[in-house]
Design a protein that fits this description.
Elements: H1 2-25, H2 27-30, H3 41-68, H4 75-95, H5 101-120
Helix pairs in contact: 1-3, 1-5, 3-4, 4-5
């Protein structure tokens, strides 16, 4: 089960890394995948910089947790994903945003797997 969990967590880590790098090198190509129109000026800087940092932090923390065996690394990406999912739900309820079910589902599932990994995987010393 532990090996399966590690393999399963490598997949979103790689996906997040690709998404982060895409925000750095091709923001116009990735923005529509998130329902965005690519902003101009400082807005574009914020979009590409903030989203690249979000996804690269997710990927880096997951991979650091898997490689180092330090379970503490799984908590920051779990928090980022679960807060993002919560924000999407609140945006739907309060701000009349479209319900982003597939995005919320992915964030909750991966966030939950990270919390399970933080509890189940052995801590290396």
């Amino acid at each position: 089960m532990r090996t399966f969990l590690k393999v399963v967590l490598v997949l979103p880590a790689l996906l997040f890394a690709v998404m982060g790098f895409r925000w750095l090198v091709d923001p116009a190509g990735v923005a529509p995948e998130f329902g965005f129109v690519l902003a101009d000026g400082i807005g574009r800087s914020s979009q590409s910089g903030d989203f690249a940092s979000f996804f690269l932090t997710l990927s880096t923390c997951i991979l650091l947790g898997l490689v180092s065996g330090t379970r503490l690394w799984f908590y920051p990406p779990a928090m980022l994903l679960l807060f993002a999912a919560s924000g999407r739900v609140l945006s739907w309820v309060i701000h009349d945003a479209a319900f982003a079910g597939s995005m919320i589902g992915l964030e909750v599932v991966v966030g939950g797997l990270l919390l399970i990994a933080a509890r189940m995987l052995p801590e290396k010393i």
